[in-house]
Amino acid sequence: MSTYLPTLKQLQYLVALHEHGHFGRAAEASFVSQSTLSAGIRELESLLGVTLVERSRRVVRFTALGNQVVEKAHRILREAEELADLVQAAGKPLAGQLRMSVIPTIAPFMLPRFLPRLRKERPELELFLREETSQDAVESLQHGRVDCVLLALPFATGEVEQAHIADDPLYVAFPKDDPRDPPATISADMIDEGRLLLLEDGHCLKEHALAACNRPELRGSATMIGTSLHTLVQMVDNGLGLTMLPQMAVDAGILNGTDVVARPLKSKAASREIALIWRKNSPRRDDFELLAEELRAG
Length: 298
Fold this sequence. Notes:
The protein has helices at residues 8-20, 23-30, 34-48, 64-89, 107-121, 134-142, 204-213, 216-221, 229-237, 247-251, 285-297, and strands at residues 53-55, 60-62, 96-102, 125-131, 148-153, 160-175, 186-187, 196-199, 223-226, 242-246, 260-266, 271-279. By secondary structure, the protein is α/β, with parallel strands linked by helices. It starts with 7 loop residues before the first helix and ends with a helix. GO terms for molecular function: DNA binding; DNA-binding transcription factor activity.
């Protein structure tokens, strides 16, 4: 049996290459030269006595064994990071580096209120933010690229722990001259499926909106085209349809400067839950609980 143990750096290079599919981009993401990254992976293969990556001029393709090694490498790197987190957690609460993913339907509306106060009250915390769709954010959490995720539930998150931040009701947004403009609320049966504009796949708000309406025909007829809530609002402002917005976006002024109005959606499921999630049994659980408290206060 071989006594050679891969280094964490070699595993980091391998994971980066798998993620980016290109030696140059993987090297850039790893902050090393392409030759350094390539040499590290070749040394790993040589000492293990196997081929992990098939190389050609145009394509980087992992072998079946290479894919298995990458999966194991993700777990090893995550465990190594949690070891460092364990030491860090023994120091001051909510201090040091912390990486958080935030979904695009929360980030521009919640963070501007939250971050200035956090920087003032927690000067020893280095918070690195990453904006990703719900699906990508959960994957980043499971692979150890981030420590926690601020997202909206319900959403399939796997084995995680979570802290409730807030409930965020849904609104229906439409041109102000819409003849069906009601005085207070809009029921799901008032929504014209041919005019409903939603975010593209990967954004959990699309699923929340469809679930709130509880009308199966909307899933096949709604237009999933927007890449951001701001884009959807502009489309509505130009008379292209109607959309759904979370209350936090409305309260943050997303409709300012437009001829779009919003009314609460009347439905049993017309709300999403804002939550902070982290990997189960993380040694930094106390930090995440404190961060959740800060978010609730924001």
